[in-house]
Amino acid sequence: MKVFCGALIACAMLAGSAARAADAPAGTIDATITIHADRPGATIAPEIYGQFAEHLGHLMYGGLWVGPKSPIPNVRGFRKDVVEALKRLGVPVVRWPGGCFADQYHWRDGIGPRDRRPVRINTTWGGVEETNAVGTHEYMDLVGQLGAKAYIDTNVGTGSPQETKDWLEYLTSPSHSELAQLRRKNGRDAPWRIDYVGFGNEPWGCGGDMRPEYYADLYHRFAAFAKTPDDAKPLKLAAGPYDDKTELTEALMKTNSFGDMDAITIHHYALPTGDWSHKGAAIGFPESQWMSTMQAALKMEDFIRAQTAVMDKYDPDKKVGLDVDEWGNWYDPSPGSNPGFLEQQDSLRDAITAALNFNIFQAHADRVRMTCIAQVVNVLQALVLTDGPKMVLTPTYWAFMLYKPFRGATDLPVDVTSPNYALDGATLSAIHASAARTAAGGLVIALVNIDPHRAAHIAATIAGASVAKVSGTIITADTMDAHNTFSRPDVVKPQPFSAASVSGGTLQVNLPAKSVVVLQLQRCFDSSPRALVALPQSAVAGRRAEGRLPE
Ligand code: AHR
């Protein structure tokens, strides 16, 4: 292949001296990857990296909301440190108020003066008092502060179509209707924009233990009355199944004749033991649970395939999305914590499985258009942990940060040939990968080595593009359960990665054991000189100035 990229050879030589296959440490495995830059797929929606914020344990109260009178620095009640950390990440969407809590939540409890809001019992999560201090106006303020899209999950389990209809009118109507005027009286003149509205949660379980056909009918009934102004229509989401259970997907797709369903949502949690009564510890776990957690997380691929196979039958044009609005690792609660609060530590293992999930979502970007990890602060696979005024960012937070270059990029198919990571008869491909073309024309590649012992040497061929100037960032640590604490907050954190080079048209990478690396590669132009002729003069000049084209 002829390469028309002045910088390429220099880059390759420079970087090549820094890292060669021959430098790979002993016990290294060899893997090969082909990235098909010539077969671009779907756009990776930024909302794939979304968040979930339920009224559960110390998530909303303590984790996000401390109230305007708190000594903890806050903006209108939301703690500054956490909001700032989430803003740095660029949270695209926040699902609220549940989860199971959504099906017991009545929005009228959460409007008006806070000191006059009713106190309820959070019967799902710990039986604690729900003060309703955070309600509609506070949540909309939070997403406003974050610059995130709003995703409200409405109450089907104990609510009514009228209640949902009224909430949407209260939120979105520019009119002078009684509900719009009530919103104004409560301090908000302009209507808000709601991007997603979900109808119920887990209807097969905490949402009401319904048959698929019954929920499908209810969905269409609720959705039919959920009216908003024509120029501000949210996407309507049906609460779907979990894992590979497809009966509910079938029932929903079969009955979508009016097209009032923009997406079906699914949930998948990875448990190390697969046993809900003893899930496994978040830290201090045996290697067998490293392996089983990887296996459980990777099931996401099978589950998305199972659901999309059903959806494809009814919707070959892929109008309806498959949004994974709850996913993550679920462990036994932190010792001494309220079991109803779902608090757990987060370690390197969680950063690795987050990366595996991102790779899967990206590969299915044609259907998967939004996901929400469970959950954003202090609950399950959290991005942020707090204790009073203290805050620490978790390895999962850093995995989200690492994958930022994928947002809005175009997915590229990747073939991986890798030795297995094997333990006690269980085997998994050691290397997992994802690649995309960014809007600026560069390539971004994610490589995960799940083998906790052996480094990997990876030779990657990029079909249809020439690349140069590789730079990278890595998350890894000495131990499988390495984690950040309030006193040692930087144990697991992204670091610059230099063991990658471009040589002879091939990308060479030495990937440490138990690590995830995201590489960014400057792309030259397609290998044909015709591509140069086709470039506008301004682009040619720009590329020459960057050293990417010969004079
Ligand atoms: O994320 C915790 C809970 O898990 C959610 O409320 C529920 O939807 C799921 O079962």
What does this structure look like?
The chain has 551 residues and is of the alpha/beta class. It is 26% helix and 25% strand. It contains 12 helices and 27 strands. It has helices at 6-18, 80-89, 136-146, 161-172, 178-185, 212-225, 247-254, 287-314, 348-363, 395-402, 529-534, 537-545, and strands at 29-36, 50-52, 74-75, 78-79, 93-96, 120-122, 128-130, 149-154, 196-199, 235-242, 263-270, 321-329, 371-373, 384-387, 390-393, 410-412, 414-417, 420-423, 426-429, 431-437, 443-449, 456-463, 467-475, 495-497, 500-503, 506-511, 515-523. Strands 2-5-8-9-10-11-12-13 form an 8-stranded parallel barrel, surrounded by 5 helices. Strands 16-20-21-27-23-24 form a 6-stranded antiparallel sheet. Helix 8 (287-314) links the parallel strand 11 (263-270) and strand 12 (321-329). Helix 4 runs parallel beside helix 6. It starts with 5 loop residues before the first helix and ends in a 6-residue tail after the last helix. Bound molecules: alpha-L-arabinofuranose (AHR). Alpha-L-arabinofuranose (AHR) binds at residues 54, 98-100, 201-202, 326, 374-375, 380.
Write the layout of secondary structure elements.
Layout: H1 6-18, E1 29-36, E2 50-52, E3 74-75, E4 78-79, H2 80-89, E5 93-96, E6 120-122, E7 128-130, H3 136-146, E8 149-154, H4 161-172, H5 178-185, E9 196-199, H6 212-225, E10 235-242, H7 247-254, E11 263-270, H8 287-314, E12 321-329, H9 348-363, E13 371-373, E14 384-387, E15 390-393, H10 395-402, E16 410-412, E17 414-417, E18 420-423, E19 426-429, E20 431-437, E21 443-449, E22 456-463, E23 467-475, E24 495-497, E25 500-503, E26 506-511, E27 515-523, H11 529-534, H12 537-545
Helix pairs in contact: 4-5, 4-6, 6-7, 7-8, 8-9, 9-10
